[in-house]
């Protein structure tokens, strides 16, 4: 059960009203009263805060517009008197939102969440954010408390209100398991000793008794920055038990399980750091080992693949913070890789076969055309020899020579086609051999199965039969 903490916050108000202080020597000081204790009086004059020993005070006249109940409440350490002053402030000064905000905080810590929620309703000023966060925190909704405080502009708050915000946020962070964040927030609240801060946070989640809580808190308060006066603990109050309600600890565990962070970092490494492998996220190649990527919360199929190794696929659920996976790959060829290599080899065999066939076609065409041109050249040569040496015979000589040259070119094309066809045919033969080997390996891996035949007798349904299962790897 959450042990509530009361914060005594000293607030510096920029009051416009004029108060009158009459000293025992007759001097009169017109100022704005800020706060007072049993021995000292703090007032603001011309924008400067000063303190006065009450032994020198003869008379104090407060302006009627000053909420003296609120000032008294801020200086009161007794929770009951503090509550009394704040209620009077609410009655006589209903427009004082700071007083209402302080009252709502006190009511939450006292366990009167319903009345506190009514005070917070329709109030959008930052001071009420702490009360709403405390309500969520006392109901075990630490994540909601953090969300409530995350949108507040702290620069618009006074030191005391800012301290209450940071401290409340630190408790919420502690309940979500973010101890480092909780300690960091307490440091912002000007608590000087980090070890005391850490002890304070541990006490909230360690199941300590109220007495142990109080001792730890008092130890933390003793190290508070006294000059800043931003945080003090007045006491502890336990919220009233709600019949049949889940325990606060249970609610906190549920809230922590939902995770404050909406994304996490997935890291994948290989046991053998000298080897690199491709990493696939939901079937899409996303990088190689060592692999690191920020993913939104959810479940992913992570596959690690390297040629010559059996691939490994792992379902991974990312829930905030860091998610580290170390994978050990085993040498070998799995069904998937064998299938890929089989298909690649088949494609290569078909491609090389088509190219070899094309080369053979070119060879045949070259031989046919070369033969035809060669015969034409023979005929032209015979005509050239039978013609006397004239101008026409010279033209016939050029013609048969050109025809022979073209025929030789066709024969060269045919010879080149034969060579290339043989090369691609041999290459295709290797591809076909690889295809056959991988196809055989694929068939063997796919045939690895476990069969089970069990007789089944069901007396309830009054039937019987055989139960058959087959699992494929």
Extract low-pLDDT stretches: 1-17, 190-211, 216-261, 448-473
Which range best describes the helical content: under 10%, 10-25%, 25-40%, 40-55%, 55-70% or over 70%? 40-55%
CATH topology of the largest domain: Serine Threonine Protein Phosphatase 5, Tetratricopeptide repeat
Distance between the termini: 51 Å
State the major sheet.
5 strands, antiparallel
Q: Output the strand order for the largest sheet.
A: 5-4-3-2-6
What is the correct CATH architecture of the largest domain? Answer: Alpha Horseshoe
Beta-strand residue fraction: 15-25%
What's the number of extended β-strand segments?
16
- Summed over residues and divided by their number, the pLDDT gives a mean of 66
Estimated radius of gyration: 45 Å
The CATH C-level name of the largest domain is: Mainly Alpha
Assembly type: single chain
Helix-and-strand structural type:
alpha+beta
Task: List SSEs in N-to-C order.
Answer: EEEEEEHHHHHHHHHHEHEEEEEEEHHEE
* Inertia-based shape: rod-shaped
Q: How many domains in all?
A: 4
The total of helices stands at 13
Describe this structure in words.
Helix content is 50%, strand content 22%. The strands form five sheets. Strands 5-4-3-2-6 form a five-stranded antiparallel sheet. By secondary structure, the chain is of the alpha+beta class. The chain has helices spanning 68-75, 79-92, 97-110, 113-120, 127-138, 142-150, 159-175, 179-188, 194-205, 210-221, 248-258, 335-386, 391-447; strands spanning 4-7, 19-23, 28-36, 40-45, 48-53, 57-61, 233-237, 263-270, 278-281, 284-288, 291-296, 298-305, 312-318, 322-327, 449-458, 463-472. α7 runs antiparallel to α8 (179-188) and α7 packs across α9. The radius of gyration is 45 Å and the shape is rod-shaped. The protein has 13 helices and 16 strands. It has four domains: 4-8 and 65-258, Serine Threonine Protein Phosphatase 5, Tetratricopeptide repeat (Alpha Horseshoe), CATH 1.25.40; 18-58; 263-327, Sandwich (Immunoglobulin-like), CATH 2.60.40; 335-449.
């Amino acid at each position: 059960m959450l042990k509530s903490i009361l914060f005594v916050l000293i607030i510096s108000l920029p009051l416009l009203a004029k108060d009158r202080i009459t000293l025992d020597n007759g001097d009169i000081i017109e100022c704005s009263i800020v706060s007072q204790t049993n021995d000292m009086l703090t007032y603001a004059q011309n924008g400067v805060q000063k303190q006065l020993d009450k032994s020198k005070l003869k008379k104090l006249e407060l302006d009627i517009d000053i909420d003296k109940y609120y000032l008294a409440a801020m200086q009161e350490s007794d929770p009951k008197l503090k509550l009394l002053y704040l209620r009077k402030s609410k009655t006589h000064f209903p427009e004082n939102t700071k007083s209402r905000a302080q009252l709502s905080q006190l009511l939450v810590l006292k366990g009167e969440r319903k009345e506190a929620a009514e005070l917070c309703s329709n109030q959008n000023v930052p001071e009420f954010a702490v009360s709403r966060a405390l309500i969520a925190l006392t109901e075990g909704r630490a994540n909601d408390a953090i969300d409530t405080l995350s949108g507040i502009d702290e620069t618009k708050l006074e030191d005391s209100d800012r301290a209450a915000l940071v401290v409340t946020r630190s408790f919420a962070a502690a309940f979500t398991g973010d101890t480092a964040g909780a300690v960091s927030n307490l440091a912002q609240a000007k608590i000087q000793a980090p070890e005391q801060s850490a002890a304070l946070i541990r006490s909230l989640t360690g199941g300590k008794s109220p007495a142990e809580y109080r001792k730890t808190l008092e130890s933390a308060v003793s190290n508070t920055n006294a000059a800043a006066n931003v945080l003090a603990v007045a006491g502890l109050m336990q919220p009233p038990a709600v019949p049949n309600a889940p325990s606060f600890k249970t609610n906190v565990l549920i809230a922590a399980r939902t995770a404050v962070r909406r994304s996490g970092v997935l890291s994948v490494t290989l046991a053998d750091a000298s080897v690199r492998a491709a990493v696939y996220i939901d079937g899409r190649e996303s990088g190689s080992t060592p692999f690191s990527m920020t993913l939104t919360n959810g479940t992913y199929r992570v596959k690690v693949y390297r040629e010559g190794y059996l691939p490994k696929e792992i379902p991974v659920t990312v829930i905030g913070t860091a998610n580290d996976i170390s994978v050990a790959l085993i040498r070998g060829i799995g069904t998937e890789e064998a299938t890929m290599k089989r298909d690649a080899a088949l494609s290569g065999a078909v491609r090389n076969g088509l190219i070899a066939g094309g080369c053979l076609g070119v060879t045949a065409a070259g031989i046919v055309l070369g033969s035809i041109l060669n015969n034409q050249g023979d005929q032209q040569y015979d005509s050239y020899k039978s013609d006397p040496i004239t101008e026409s015979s010279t033209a016939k000589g050029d013609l048969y020579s050109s025809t022979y040259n073209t025929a030789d070119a066709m024969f060269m094309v045919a010879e080149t086609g034969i060579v290339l066809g043989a090369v691609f045919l041999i290459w295709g033969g290797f591809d076909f051999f690889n295809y056959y080997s991988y196809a055989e390996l694929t068939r063997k891996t796919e045939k690895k199965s476990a069969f089970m035949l069990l007789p089944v007798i069901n007396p309830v349904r009054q039937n019987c039969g055989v139960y058959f299962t087959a699992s494929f790897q």
